[in-house]
Design a protein that fits this description.
Elements lengths: L3 H7 L1 H9 L3 E8 L2 E8 L2 H14 L6 E7 L22 E4 L6 H9 L5 H7 L16 E4 L3
Parallel strand pairs: 2-3
Antiparallel strand pairs: 1-2, 4-5
Amino acid sequence: MADLDALKQKYSSVLELIKKQNVRLDHLHVQDDKLFMQGAAPSEDIKNNVWNQIKTVDASYSDLTCDLSVDSSLPQPAPEEAPAPEAAAPQGTTYTVEPGDSLWKIAAKFLGNGALYPQIIAANPDTLKDEHTVIHPGDVLNIPSA
């Protein structure tokens, strides 16, 4: 039997995004050994952002069922302030990708938070274009200092 708390922890970044983007979550429970999420997003873009975050956590999302519709009557989230431009990434370390790794897992291990994976992308501009870039075992990545 799948553990609700463990699945909520695994997909915590998705749940945080849902909260920040004013997605209405009508159901969140375990069904058929999968985390079941059902609700509505204020726009198609926000719905797609949620799906992109799901795929960042687990590209196969084999332990998740997500049913989101679009409800334009929901309030749009407040616009976020643009992040300040970053200086060149500080020297960190390198890491060789192992089977089962994801940018999220690597960021969690080295930076203390999986949501910081964009810092790894920024530190590897020649090899990582965005969060959809596939990494393979044996790839060597620059890891910025935490």
